[in-house]
Amino acid sequence: MDAYVITNIEWIEEISMSEGMVISEERRTEENVVCKTGIDELDVQLEGGIPVGNTVLMVGSSGSGKTTLCMQFLANGARQGERGVFFTITEPLFKLTKNMQGFDFYDKKLIESGMINLIDLRIISERLGLDTEKYTVEDASALLEVLKDIADELNVKRLVIDSITALCYRLQTREMIRDFIFKLGSSLAAMNCTTFLTSEVPPNEVKYSQYDIEEFIADGIILLGDIDRSGDLIRTLQLIKMRGTTHSRIKSAMSISSKNGIELTPLLKSRA
Amino acid sequence: MTKTLIDGLKERVSNAITINQSVGVILPSNNYSDLIQALFEHVQSRPEDEWAYVTITRPYESIVKQFGDLCSGGNIKFIDCISRAAGLSKINPNCVFIESPAHLEKIIMEIMNVFKNVGDNVQKYLIIDSLSSLLIYNDAQIVTEFFTHLTNRTRLSDIHSASIAIEEEMNGNINKIIYLRSDKIIKLRESFI
Predict the structure, then answer these.
(1) Are A73 and A108 contacting, i.e. CB atoms less than 8 angstroms apart?
(2) In this structure, is residue A11 part of a structural domain?
(3) Extended strands (E) in A52-176
(4) Which letter does DSSP use for residue A220 in this model?
(5) A16 CB within 8 Å of a chain B CB
(6) Which residues in chain B (111-150) have CB-CB distances under 8 A to chain A?
(7) pLDDT digit string (tens) for A108-127?
(8) Is residue A172 less than 8 Å (CB to CB) from chain B?
(9) Domain for residue A25, yes or no?
(10) Domain count, chain A
(11) Model confidence pLDDT, tens digit, residues B86-133
(12) CATH code assigned at B142
Protein backbone atom coordinates (compact mmCIF):
# COMPACT_ATOMS: atom_id res chain seq x y z
CA MET A 1 0.00 0.00 0.00
CA ASP A 2 1.31 3.37 -1.06
CA ALA A 3 -0.59 5.26 1.57
CA TYR A 4 1.66 7.70 3.27
CA VAL A 5 0.72 7.79 6.89
CA ILE A 6 1.32 10.72 9.14
CA THR A 7 0.45 9.83 12.70
CA ASN A 8 0.58 12.51 15.29
CA ILE A 9 -0.03 11.32 18.82
CA GLU A 10 1.02 13.87 21.34
CA TRP A 11 0.68 13.85 25.09
CA ILE A 12 1.38 16.93 27.10
CA GLU A 13 1.95 16.38 30.79
CA GLU A 14 2.62 19.40 32.87
CA ILE A 15 3.48 19.02 36.53
CA SER A 16 3.35 21.95 38.90
CA MET A 17 4.93 20.77 42.11
CA SER A 18 4.35 24.01 43.99
CA GLU A 19 0.65 23.72 43.57
CA GLY A 20 0.75 19.96 43.94
CA MET A 21 -1.31 19.73 40.84
CA VAL A 22 -0.92 17.54 37.84
CA ILE A 23 -2.43 18.73 34.58
CA SER A 24 -2.61 16.20 31.88
CA GLU A 25 -3.93 16.90 28.48
CA GLU A 26 -4.39 14.40 25.77
CA ARG A 27 -4.37 16.01 22.44
CA ARG A 28 -6.61 14.56 19.84
CA THR A 29 -5.01 11.76 17.92
CA GLU A 30 -4.90 12.74 14.32
CA GLU A 31 -4.32 10.38 11.48
CA ASN A 32 -3.99 11.80 8.02
CA VAL A 33 -3.63 9.18 5.36
CA VAL A 34 -2.75 10.46 1.93
CA CYS A 35 -2.59 8.96 -1.53
CA LYS A 36 0.53 10.14 -3.32
CA THR A 37 -0.06 11.01 -6.96
CA GLY A 38 3.60 10.19 -7.67
CA ILE A 39 3.98 13.54 -9.47
CA ASP A 40 6.49 15.09 -7.09
CA GLU A 41 5.62 18.77 -7.49
CA LEU A 42 1.89 18.03 -7.24
CA ASP A 43 2.38 16.02 -4.04
CA VAL A 44 4.37 18.92 -2.58
CA GLN A 45 1.52 21.29 -3.42
CA LEU A 46 -0.90 18.83 -1.78
CA GLU A 47 1.25 18.63 1.35
CA GLY A 48 2.01 14.97 0.74
CA GLY A 49 -0.84 13.80 -1.44
CA ILE A 50 -4.60 13.53 -1.76
CA PRO A 51 -6.43 12.47 1.40
CA VAL A 52 -7.35 8.83 0.86
CA GLY A 53 -10.97 8.39 -0.17
CA ASN A 54 -11.33 11.84 -1.70
CA THR A 55 -13.22 12.25 -4.96
CA VAL A 56 -11.34 14.70 -7.15
CA LEU A 57 -12.65 16.50 -10.20
CA MET A 58 -9.98 16.80 -12.90
CA VAL A 59 -11.21 19.74 -14.94
CA GLY A 60 -9.93 20.78 -18.36
CA SER A 61 -10.77 21.36 -21.97
CA SER A 62 -9.86 19.02 -24.78
CA GLY A 63 -6.11 18.30 -24.92
CA SER A 64 -5.36 19.72 -21.49
CA GLY A 65 -3.83 16.47 -20.18
CA LYS A 66 -6.65 15.06 -18.03
CA THR A 67 -6.41 11.48 -19.28
CA THR A 68 -2.59 11.45 -19.17
CA LEU A 69 -2.54 12.74 -15.59
CA CYS A 70 -5.11 10.15 -14.55
CA MET A 71 -3.18 7.31 -16.19
CA GLN A 72 0.07 8.44 -14.58
CA PHE A 73 -1.74 8.55 -11.22
CA LEU A 74 -2.84 4.93 -11.73
CA ALA A 75 0.58 3.77 -13.00
CA ASN A 76 2.42 5.37 -10.07
CA GLY A 77 -0.02 3.76 -7.67
CA ALA A 78 0.28 0.34 -9.32
CA ARG A 79 4.06 0.47 -8.98
CA GLN A 80 3.55 0.98 -5.25
CA GLY A 81 1.22 -2.00 -5.04
CA GLU A 82 -2.08 -0.08 -5.21
CA ARG A 83 -4.50 -1.59 -7.68
CA GLY A 84 -6.36 0.84 -9.94
CA VAL A 85 -9.22 0.86 -12.39
CA PHE A 86 -9.85 3.21 -15.30
CA PHE A 87 -13.44 3.44 -16.56
CA THR A 88 -13.65 5.07 -19.95
CA ILE A 89 -16.80 6.27 -21.61
CA THR A 90 -15.27 8.59 -24.19
CA GLU A 91 -12.48 6.62 -25.81
CA PRO A 92 -12.26 2.99 -26.98
CA LEU A 93 -9.75 0.94 -24.98
CA PHE A 94 -7.45 0.23 -27.93
CA LYS A 95 -7.10 3.97 -28.58
CA LEU A 96 -6.46 4.66 -24.91
CA THR A 97 -3.65 2.09 -24.67
CA LYS A 98 -2.20 3.18 -28.02
CA ASN A 99 -2.00 6.78 -26.82
CA MET A 100 -0.34 5.76 -23.56
CA GLN A 101 2.33 3.56 -25.17
CA GLY A 102 4.51 6.57 -25.90
CA PHE A 103 4.95 7.36 -22.20
CA ASP A 104 7.72 5.85 -20.09
CA PHE A 105 5.36 5.61 -17.09
CA TYR A 106 3.12 3.26 -19.07
CA ASP A 107 3.99 -0.40 -18.70
CA LYS A 108 1.91 -3.06 -20.42
CA LYS A 109 2.78 -5.46 -17.62
CA LEU A 110 0.81 -3.34 -15.14
CA ILE A 111 -2.29 -4.07 -17.21
CA GLU A 112 -1.46 -7.72 -17.86
CA SER A 113 -0.86 -8.30 -14.16
CA GLY A 114 -4.20 -6.72 -13.26
CA MET A 115 -2.65 -3.87 -11.28
CA ILE A 116 -4.35 -1.47 -13.70
CA ASN A 117 -7.74 -2.47 -15.09
CA LEU A 118 -9.14 -0.68 -18.11
CA ILE A 119 -12.90 -0.98 -18.50
CA ASP A 120 -15.17 0.43 -21.18
CA LEU A 121 -18.36 1.62 -19.47
CA ARG A 122 -20.30 1.45 -22.71
CA ILE A 123 -19.64 -2.28 -22.90
CA ILE A 124 -20.81 -2.71 -19.32
CA SER A 125 -23.96 -0.74 -20.11
CA GLU A 126 -24.63 -2.96 -23.10
CA ARG A 127 -24.14 -6.11 -21.03
CA LEU A 128 -26.52 -4.77 -18.41
CA GLY A 129 -29.03 -4.18 -21.17
CA LEU A 130 -29.09 -0.41 -20.53
CA ASP A 131 -29.79 2.24 -23.12
CA THR A 132 -26.21 3.44 -23.66
CA GLU A 133 -27.38 6.96 -24.53
CA LYS A 134 -29.89 7.63 -21.77
CA TYR A 135 -30.06 6.22 -18.25
CA THR A 136 -33.18 5.97 -16.11
CA VAL A 137 -32.97 6.18 -12.29
CA GLU A 138 -32.93 2.38 -12.20
CA ASP A 139 -30.21 2.20 -14.86
CA ALA A 140 -28.06 4.64 -12.90
CA SER A 141 -28.50 2.58 -9.73
CA ALA A 142 -27.58 -0.60 -11.56
CA LEU A 143 -24.49 1.02 -13.04
CA LEU A 144 -23.47 2.41 -9.67
CA GLU A 145 -23.75 -1.05 -8.12
CA VAL A 146 -21.58 -2.51 -10.87
CA LEU A 147 -18.92 0.18 -10.37
CA LYS A 148 -18.92 -0.43 -6.62
CA ASP A 149 -18.80 -4.20 -7.06
CA ILE A 150 -15.84 -3.96 -9.45
CA ALA A 151 -13.96 -1.62 -7.12
CA ASP A 152 -14.74 -3.87 -4.16
CA GLU A 153 -13.93 -7.14 -5.91
CA LEU A 154 -10.64 -5.90 -7.30
CA ASN A 155 -9.85 -4.12 -4.03
CA VAL A 156 -8.86 -1.01 -5.97
CA LYS A 157 -7.33 1.97 -4.17
CA ARG A 158 -7.37 4.30 -7.16
CA LEU A 159 -10.27 4.77 -9.54
CA VAL A 160 -10.77 6.99 -12.58
CA ILE A 161 -13.93 7.77 -14.53
CA ASP A 162 -13.14 9.42 -17.87
CA SER A 163 -15.31 11.36 -18.16
CA ILE A 164 -17.97 12.23 -15.59
CA THR A 165 -19.29 14.75 -18.13
CA ALA A 166 -20.10 12.01 -20.63
CA LEU A 167 -21.70 9.96 -17.86
CA CYS A 168 -23.74 12.91 -16.57
CA TYR A 169 -24.94 13.55 -20.12
CA ARG A 170 -26.70 10.17 -19.93
CA LEU A 171 -28.13 10.80 -16.45
CA GLN A 172 -30.59 13.44 -17.70
CA THR A 173 -31.46 15.37 -14.51
CA ARG A 174 -29.41 17.35 -12.01
CA GLU A 175 -30.88 15.30 -9.17
CA MET A 176 -29.72 12.06 -10.78
CA ILE A 177 -26.26 13.49 -11.33
CA ARG A 178 -26.00 14.71 -7.74
CA ASP A 179 -27.28 11.42 -6.37
CA PHE A 180 -24.97 9.35 -8.58
CA ILE A 181 -21.77 11.25 -7.76
CA PHE A 182 -22.60 11.49 -4.07
CA LYS A 183 -23.31 7.78 -3.72
CA LEU A 184 -20.30 6.82 -5.82
CA GLY A 185 -17.97 9.06 -3.79
CA SER A 186 -19.33 7.81 -0.44
CA SER A 187 -19.04 4.15 -1.39
CA LEU A 188 -15.50 4.50 -2.71
CA ALA A 189 -14.39 6.55 0.30
CA ALA A 190 -15.65 3.76 2.55
CA MET A 191 -13.35 1.42 0.60
CA ASN A 192 -10.40 3.85 1.04
CA CYS A 193 -10.41 4.33 -2.71
CA THR A 194 -9.28 7.69 -4.12
CA THR A 195 -11.20 8.72 -7.21
CA PHE A 196 -10.49 11.01 -10.16
CA LEU A 197 -13.46 12.14 -12.24
CA THR A 198 -12.48 13.97 -15.42
CA SER A 199 -14.66 16.94 -16.27
CA GLU A 200 -14.74 18.42 -19.75
CA VAL A 201 -15.21 22.18 -20.00
CA PRO A 202 -15.00 24.59 -22.94
CA PRO A 203 -11.57 26.27 -23.34
CA ASN A 204 -10.93 29.61 -21.61
CA GLU A 205 -14.08 29.51 -19.49
CA VAL A 206 -14.05 29.76 -15.70
CA LYS A 207 -16.17 26.70 -15.17
CA TYR A 208 -15.45 23.47 -13.35
CA SER A 209 -18.13 21.30 -14.85
CA GLN A 210 -20.70 21.09 -17.58
CA TYR A 211 -23.68 20.70 -15.23
CA ASP A 212 -22.53 22.98 -12.36
CA ILE A 213 -23.12 20.22 -9.82
CA GLU A 214 -20.06 18.00 -9.99
CA GLU A 215 -17.76 20.45 -8.19
CA PHE A 216 -19.99 20.69 -5.13
CA ILE A 217 -20.00 16.95 -4.60
CA ALA A 218 -16.28 16.53 -5.22
CA ASP A 219 -13.75 16.80 -2.37
CA GLY A 220 -11.14 18.27 -4.66
CA ILE A 221 -10.79 20.19 -7.90
CA ILE A 222 -7.69 20.23 -10.08
CA LEU A 223 -7.97 22.70 -12.94
CA LEU A 224 -5.97 22.16 -16.13
CA GLY A 225 -5.75 24.96 -18.65
CA ASP A 226 -3.62 26.93 -21.07
CA ILE A 227 -2.18 30.40 -21.27
CA ASP A 228 -1.14 32.06 -24.48
CA ARG A 229 2.41 33.42 -24.54
CA SER A 230 3.56 35.00 -27.78
CA GLY A 231 1.17 32.74 -29.64
CA ASP A 232 2.42 29.56 -27.91
CA LEU A 233 0.12 27.68 -25.57
CA ILE A 234 1.60 26.88 -22.16
CA ARG A 235 -0.23 24.18 -20.20
CA THR A 236 -1.19 25.08 -16.64
CA LEU A 237 -2.38 23.25 -13.52
CA GLN A 238 -3.95 24.78 -10.43
CA LEU A 239 -5.34 23.20 -7.27
CA ILE A 240 -8.68 24.87 -6.60
CA LYS A 241 -9.92 22.78 -3.73
CA MET A 242 -8.83 19.75 -1.75
CA ARG A 243 -10.71 18.93 1.41
CA GLY A 244 -8.50 17.76 4.24
CA THR A 245 -5.41 19.70 3.16
CA THR A 246 -4.15 23.26 3.26
CA HIS A 247 -2.94 22.94 -0.29
CA SER A 248 -1.14 25.42 -2.51
CA ARG A 249 -3.24 27.54 -4.88
CA ILE A 250 -0.46 28.74 -7.17
CA LYS A 251 -0.76 28.31 -10.91
CA SER A 252 1.90 25.98 -12.27
CA ALA A 253 3.22 25.50 -15.78
CA MET A 254 2.68 21.89 -16.77
CA SER A 255 4.73 19.86 -19.18
CA ILE A 256 3.82 16.52 -20.72
CA SER A 257 6.72 14.52 -22.12
CA SER A 258 7.13 10.90 -23.06
CA LYS A 259 10.08 10.53 -20.72
CA ASN A 260 8.78 12.20 -17.57
CA GLY A 261 5.02 12.30 -18.11
CA ILE A 262 3.51 15.22 -16.19
CA GLU A 263 5.91 17.76 -14.65
CA LEU A 264 5.15 21.05 -12.93
CA THR A 265 7.01 24.23 -12.11
CA PRO A 266 5.64 27.60 -10.92
CA LEU A 267 4.24 29.66 -13.77
CA LEU A 268 6.09 32.91 -14.42
CA LYS A 269 3.79 35.79 -13.57
CA SER A 270 4.95 38.40 -16.05
CA ARG A 271 2.84 38.82 -19.13
CA ALA A 272 4.60 38.32 -22.45
CA MET B 1 47.26 34.10 -30.83
CA THR B 2 43.99 32.14 -30.86
CA LYS B 3 45.45 29.41 -28.63
CA THR B 4 46.64 31.99 -26.13
CA LEU B 5 43.27 33.71 -26.23
CA ILE B 6 41.38 30.46 -25.61
CA ASP B 7 43.71 29.46 -22.79
CA GLY B 8 43.23 32.88 -21.23
CA LEU B 9 39.46 32.64 -21.55
CA LYS B 10 39.43 29.13 -20.17
CA GLU B 11 41.36 30.16 -17.10
CA ARG B 12 39.35 33.30 -16.43
CA VAL B 13 35.93 31.77 -16.94
CA SER B 14 36.65 28.42 -15.28
CA ASN B 15 38.11 30.09 -12.21
CA ALA B 16 35.18 32.45 -11.93
CA ILE B 17 32.50 29.78 -12.36
CA THR B 18 34.18 27.48 -9.84
CA ILE B 19 34.43 30.14 -7.17
CA ASN B 20 31.16 32.02 -7.74
CA GLN B 21 27.65 30.66 -7.79
CA SER B 22 26.43 32.82 -10.63
CA VAL B 23 28.70 34.43 -13.23
CA GLY B 24 27.75 36.82 -16.01
CA VAL B 25 30.03 36.79 -19.05
CA ILE B 26 29.81 39.78 -21.41
CA LEU B 27 31.82 39.47 -24.59
CA PRO B 28 32.12 40.97 -28.05
CA SER B 29 30.50 38.87 -30.78
CA ASN B 30 33.81 38.25 -32.54
CA ASN B 31 35.06 36.46 -29.40
CA TYR B 32 31.94 34.34 -29.07
CA SER B 33 33.36 31.20 -30.76
CA ASP B 34 36.58 31.46 -28.76
CA LEU B 35 34.63 31.55 -25.50
CA ILE B 36 32.49 28.58 -26.47
CA GLN B 37 35.56 26.60 -27.48
CA ALA B 38 37.25 27.50 -24.21
CA LEU B 39 34.18 26.39 -22.27
CA PHE B 40 33.95 23.07 -24.09
CA GLU B 41 37.64 22.39 -23.57
CA HIS B 42 37.11 23.06 -19.89
CA VAL B 43 34.09 20.73 -19.79
CA GLN B 44 36.07 17.92 -21.45
CA SER B 45 38.98 18.40 -19.06
CA ARG B 46 36.64 17.88 -16.08
CA PRO B 47 34.81 14.58 -16.73
CA GLU B 48 33.91 14.25 -13.07
CA ASP B 49 31.68 17.36 -13.20
CA GLU B 50 28.13 17.52 -14.62
CA TRP B 51 27.19 20.26 -17.09
CA ALA B 52 24.00 21.53 -18.69
CA TYR B 53 24.30 23.79 -21.72
CA VAL B 54 21.25 25.82 -22.72
CA THR B 55 21.52 27.12 -26.25
CA ILE B 56 19.33 29.89 -27.54
CA THR B 57 21.98 31.25 -29.90
CA ARG B 58 22.88 28.33 -32.15
CA PRO B 59 21.14 25.01 -32.86
CA TYR B 60 22.67 21.97 -31.18
CA GLU B 61 23.51 20.38 -34.56
CA SER B 62 25.46 23.46 -35.53
CA ILE B 63 27.44 23.42 -32.27
CA VAL B 64 28.32 19.74 -32.82
CA LYS B 65 29.39 20.47 -36.40
CA GLN B 66 31.77 23.18 -35.27
CA PHE B 67 33.11 21.75 -32.02
CA GLY B 68 32.78 18.00 -32.60
CA ASP B 69 31.27 15.30 -30.41
CA LEU B 70 31.16 17.05 -27.07
CA CYS B 71 29.06 14.41 -25.37
CA SER B 72 31.51 11.50 -25.56
CA GLY B 73 32.55 12.18 -21.97
CA GLY B 74 28.94 11.80 -20.85
CA ASN B 75 29.18 14.83 -18.56
CA ILE B 76 27.27 17.40 -20.61
CA LYS B 77 23.65 17.58 -21.72
CA PHE B 78 22.31 20.18 -24.11
CA ILE B 79 18.98 21.98 -23.98
CA ASP B 80 18.24 23.42 -27.40
CA CYS B 81 15.54 26.11 -27.32
CA ILE B 82 15.53 27.16 -30.97
CA SER B 83 15.77 24.17 -33.32
CA ARG B 84 12.22 22.92 -32.84
CA ALA B 85 10.79 26.38 -33.25
CA ALA B 86 12.64 26.48 -36.58
CA GLY B 87 11.42 22.99 -37.49
CA LEU B 88 14.96 21.59 -37.46
CA SER B 89 15.15 19.16 -34.58
CA LYS B 90 16.08 15.50 -34.65
CA ILE B 91 15.88 13.14 -31.70
CA ASN B 92 19.18 12.99 -29.84
CA PRO B 93 19.88 11.37 -26.46
CA ASN B 94 22.33 14.14 -25.56
CA CYS B 95 19.96 17.00 -26.24
CA VAL B 96 16.48 17.99 -25.12
CA PHE B 97 14.69 20.08 -27.69
CA ILE B 98 12.33 22.69 -26.25
CA GLU B 99 9.33 23.61 -28.41
CA SER B 100 9.81 27.33 -28.11
CA PRO B 101 12.24 29.78 -26.50
CA ALA B 102 9.13 31.46 -25.06
CA HIS B 103 8.40 28.37 -22.95
CA LEU B 104 10.69 29.56 -20.17
CA GLU B 105 9.22 27.28 -17.50
CA LYS B 106 10.04 24.24 -19.63
CA ILE B 107 13.64 25.43 -19.86
CA ILE B 108 13.79 25.54 -16.05
CA MET B 109 12.23 22.05 -15.79
CA GLU B 110 14.73 20.54 -18.23
CA ILE B 111 17.70 22.20 -16.51
CA MET B 112 16.60 20.74 -13.19
CA ASN B 113 16.03 17.33 -14.85
CA VAL B 114 19.66 17.23 -16.04
CA PHE B 115 20.81 17.46 -12.42
CA LYS B 116 17.96 15.46 -10.85
CA ASN B 117 19.90 12.23 -10.31
CA VAL B 118 23.37 13.73 -9.92
CA GLY B 119 25.03 12.93 -6.61
CA ASP B 120 25.64 15.61 -3.98
CA ASN B 121 29.41 15.20 -4.26
CA VAL B 122 29.42 16.02 -8.00
CA GLN B 123 30.04 19.62 -9.05
CA LYS B 124 27.15 20.92 -11.18
CA TYR B 125 27.47 23.67 -13.77
CA LEU B 126 25.04 25.43 -16.06
CA ILE B 127 25.76 27.58 -19.12
CA ILE B 128 23.08 29.91 -20.53
CA ASP B 129 23.99 30.83 -24.10
CA SER B 130 22.76 33.51 -24.17
CA LEU B 131 20.64 35.92 -22.19
CA SER B 132 20.71 38.41 -25.02
CA SER B 133 19.30 35.79 -27.42
CA LEU B 134 16.53 34.97 -24.95
CA LEU B 135 15.46 38.60 -25.19
CA ILE B 136 14.89 38.24 -28.91
CA TYR B 137 11.98 35.89 -28.19
CA ASN B 138 10.69 37.25 -24.86
CA ASP B 139 10.19 40.64 -23.32
CA ALA B 140 12.54 41.97 -20.66
CA GLN B 141 10.13 41.66 -17.75
CA ILE B 142 9.53 37.95 -18.16
CA VAL B 143 13.22 37.23 -18.83
CA THR B 144 14.05 39.05 -15.60
CA GLU B 145 11.54 36.91 -13.75
CA PHE B 146 12.84 33.76 -15.45
CA PHE B 147 16.44 34.57 -14.60
CA THR B 148 15.59 35.43 -10.99
CA HIS B 149 13.62 32.22 -10.60
CA LEU B 150 16.36 30.17 -12.26
CA THR B 151 19.18 31.60 -10.16
CA ASN B 152 17.15 30.94 -7.01
CA ARG B 153 16.62 27.33 -8.05
CA THR B 154 20.25 26.78 -9.07
CA ARG B 155 21.56 28.33 -5.84
CA LEU B 156 19.30 26.04 -3.80
CA SER B 157 20.57 23.03 -5.75
CA ASP B 158 24.26 24.01 -5.57
CA ILE B 159 24.47 24.51 -9.31
CA HIS B 160 27.04 27.03 -10.52
CA SER B 161 25.93 29.02 -13.55
CA ALA B 162 27.50 31.16 -16.25
CA SER B 163 25.22 33.36 -18.30
CA ILE B 164 26.56 34.76 -21.54
CA ALA B 165 25.55 38.09 -23.05
CA ILE B 166 26.83 39.48 -26.34
CA GLU B 167 28.18 42.99 -25.93
CA GLU B 168 26.66 44.31 -29.15
CA GLU B 169 23.24 43.15 -28.01
CA MET B 170 23.54 44.71 -24.57
CA ASN B 171 20.94 47.24 -23.59
CA GLY B 172 19.50 48.57 -20.35
CA ASN B 173 17.36 45.48 -19.84
CA ILE B 174 20.17 42.96 -20.15
CA ASN B 175 22.42 45.10 -18.02
CA LYS B 176 19.82 45.15 -15.28
CA ILE B 177 19.24 41.40 -15.43
CA ILE B 178 22.85 40.31 -15.56
CA TYR B 179 24.31 42.83 -13.12
CA LEU B 180 21.64 42.37 -10.47
CA ARG B 181 21.56 38.59 -10.43
CA SER B 182 25.22 37.63 -10.94
CA ASP B 183 27.82 37.26 -8.18
CA LYS B 184 30.55 38.20 -10.60
CA ILE B 185 30.68 39.82 -14.03
CA ILE B 186 33.46 39.07 -16.49
CA LYS B 187 33.77 41.49 -19.37
CA LEU B 188 35.96 40.02 -22.03
CA ARG B 189 38.16 42.07 -24.34
CA GLU B 190 40.68 40.74 -26.80
CA SER B 191 43.13 43.04 -25.12
CA PHE B 192 42.72 41.54 -21.65
CA ILE B 193 45.37 38.88 -22.24
Answers:
(1) no
(2) no
(3) 55-60, 84-88, 116-120, 158-162
(4) E
(5) no
(6) 112-113, 137-139, 141-142, 144-146, 149
(7) 999 999 999 999 999 998 88
(8) no
(9) no
(10) 1
(11) 888 678 889 999 999 999 999 999 999 999 989 989 999 999 999 999
(12) 3.40.50.300
